[in-house]
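COURSE: Structural Biology Practicum
ASSIGNMENT: Worksheet 4, Part C
STUDENT ID: 0417
INSTRUCTIONS: Below are two proteins. For each, the amino acid sequence is given first, followed by its structure token string. Answer the questions at the end about the second protein only.

PROTEIN I
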Amino acid sequence: MIELVRNVRFWFAPERIEDDGETPDYRFSLANERTFLAWLRTSLALIGGGFAVDQFLPDLPWAWRVGLALGLLAAGALCALRAVNHWVRCERAIRRRENLPVSRFPALLSIGVALVALAMVVVVLAGWQE
């Protein structure tokens, strides 16, 4: 948690990262940026999925619809925040010539998305039964 607080300052002042370590080959920084953008696309897809569940499944029971929508929206918001923090952590590690940081977040996000997908399967099958 302390590292997260330290990294937040770099979210809004990325030029301060230049004071940490030495300038890497620009290709590494660009690759890190592409990964960041991929995480943001994932975040936007999750947010879009949350809105889609809420708007396009009006016949779904309220609790299911809101639960699934809020789960996807929360995952999207968390993914966006995690993206910027991971970008900072990786950029600092690249500049310091350290190993890239490891994270459990991709596994947790995958499990969360899989659970929402399974819930949607249940909803679809229950809808076909009626």
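PROTEIN II
(use this one for the questions)
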Amino acid sequence: MVRKKLAIFASGRGSNAEALHDAIKAGTINGDIVVVVTDHADAGVIERAERWNVPVIVIERKGFESKDAFEQAMIDAIAPYSPDGIVLAGYMRLLGPTFITPYENRILNIHPALLPSFSGLHAQGQAVVAGVKVSGCTVHFVDTGMDSGPIIMQNTVPVYADDTEDTLAERLLPIEHVTYKEALALFCDDKLEIKDHIVHIKG
């Protein structure tokens, strides 16, 4: 099977990107990271990409008059790499139709909550405030809504009475890494099929 070419999008330190890179190097994901894109010139993921010898593209929103122009610039920037999949690994911007349409059902994201509950920012904090006993993470395809795309995979962690947003996030992070690696491996093996907004895993 042909290896998938993957573009990683990240806004911060890139811990999920690192986990995915390690899994690719270990041979558990049938793909290659061909480019890393960030919207922050000081993002920690840049140092990681340089260590991996992967090209980095910095495209900051402030350099463009409109969201459409910003997203078109990203499309143009990654076009030479011909990515088969876009992997959002802590990319803190809501993508719009200009970017999503050319890559429909080929953009993956991980969210630190059990969607459809607690979408948006500070998901772990939302879970703590709500008093839930179980939280987790969700890997999903991206659509034009807020964390509303078809769900690929979820995993759970307990929420303790003395948890804060930070302690829950720390407990959840290694589970995020495991879940994202499993979901991306399925994507790269062409085992994901969407029917009526539901993701089916093919045998």
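ANSWER KEY EXCERPT:
Q1: The chain has six helices and nine strands.
Q2: Residues 29 and 185 are 5 Å apart (CA to CA).
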